[in-house]
Input
Amino acid sequence: MYLVKNHNGTLLGEFATKAAADAEAAAYRKETLNAAYVERAGSSESLDIDTIAENALNAACASIQDELGVATGDLAGMFFSGEAAEQVLKVFKAYIRLEIESKQE
Output
């Protein structure tokens, strides 16, 4: 039996196969990321560049994890702490600024 828990440790379900558990974990990650984005985007406050870049990094990691059948984001959390995250976020922020500038032309 495979257990899937959310980020708070609450049990989301028990699954007979690893594939089913991985699919549920991936769906939960996508739903959580989408809900956070919609909540922020729908507010009266616009998203700032830092938040957009962090959302992009999270979405990229979730996509990779989904394709590889990774059930948790633990390794991504360790890998993208410190300099690795700073480098990727710097690239995303440059791209975001470019998109903003191109919309203003």
